[in-house]
Amino acid sequence: MTKVAIIIGAGDAIGAAIAKKFADRGLTVCATRRTEEKIKKLTDEINNSGGKAFGFSCDARKEEETISLFERIEQDIGEIDVMVFNVGANVPMSILDTSSRKFFKIWEMACYAGFLNGREAAKYMVKRNKGTIIFTGATASMRGGSNFAAFASAKNGLRALAQSMARELGPQNIHVAHVIIDAAVDTEWIKSIHPEYDKKIKTDGIVNPSHLAENYLYLYDQPRDAWTFELDLRPWQETW
User: Is residue 63 within 8 Å of 39, Cβ to Cβ?
Assistant: First the structure.
C-alpha cells in the first residue's frame, strides 16, 4: 500500500522543505494550500526529481473541504502515514488595533484548522493502529510577545491540542508531536524585514528550511519506546 505524507500548509519555505524530505524518503506527498496554482511549483519539482507528489487546493479552516480532502486521498492515492500541520498566521498587531474579526481569523487558521486536520488524520490512523501527526509551533506557542496577542493565543491553543492528542492517541500507536520553531527561518518575508539578514545568513543565525525539515523526519522515524512529544529548535547564536 502506498504510504502518504500530507502536508497542510505547504508554503514556499518550511512546508515545501518538509514535503521534499518526505518525498526523498519514498512517501507519496500530498501538499495543500488555499490555491492550487501556488502548489504546482513544488509538486512539479518533486515529480521531476523522481519523487511523487500531488497538489490540492483546500482551506484548512473549512470542515467539509477538510473531510473531503482526507477521504479523496485515502480512496484515490494511499494510506496517510504522516500528517504535518504547518499553517502559519503570524500577523503582528497591537491589541488596540485587533478587531474581533482579525482575532477570530488568526485563531481559525492557527488553532481551529489544526483541530480539524488532526482529527481527520486520527480517524484513519486509529483504524490502522499506526501513524504520525506533527504540528508546527512557534515562539508564540510558549510566550505571548508584544503585539502578538491573537497569534500567541492560537499557537498556545494548538500546543495544548497536540498535548491532549498525544496522550489520547499514543496508546493507539499514533505518535503526535509538536515542533517549536523559536527562530527566524530563511524565507522571502524574513529576507525583506530582518535588519541583519545578510550578516545572520552568513553565520548560520537564520534557520535553513531544509535543516528544519530534517527534524520532522527524525520524529517520524522514532521508535515508539522513545517518542519525543516536543522539539524546540533555534540557531546556535541566539541572544538571550
Answer: no
Residue 198 neighbours by CB distance under 10 Å: 9
Sign of CA dihedral 176, 230, 142, 13: negative
User: What residue has cell string 496508546?
Assistant: 171
- What is the 3-state composition of the chain as percent helix, strand, coil, each rounded to the nearest 5? 50, 20, 30
The bridge status of strand 79-85 relative to strand 53-57 is: unpaired
Q: Which fold has domain 3-183+215-233?
A: Rossmann fold (3.40.50)
Over residues 133-162, the pLDDT tens digits come to: 999 999 999 999 999 999 999 999 999 999
Domain range summary for the chain, segments of one domain joined by +? 3-183+215-233
Going by C-alpha positions, the residue among 12, 8, 14, 13 that lies closest to residue 29 is 8
- In three-state secondary structure terms, 83 is strand
Query: How many other C-beta atoms lie within 10 A of the C-beta of residue 166?
Result: 19
Kindly report the pTM of this predicted structure. 0.95
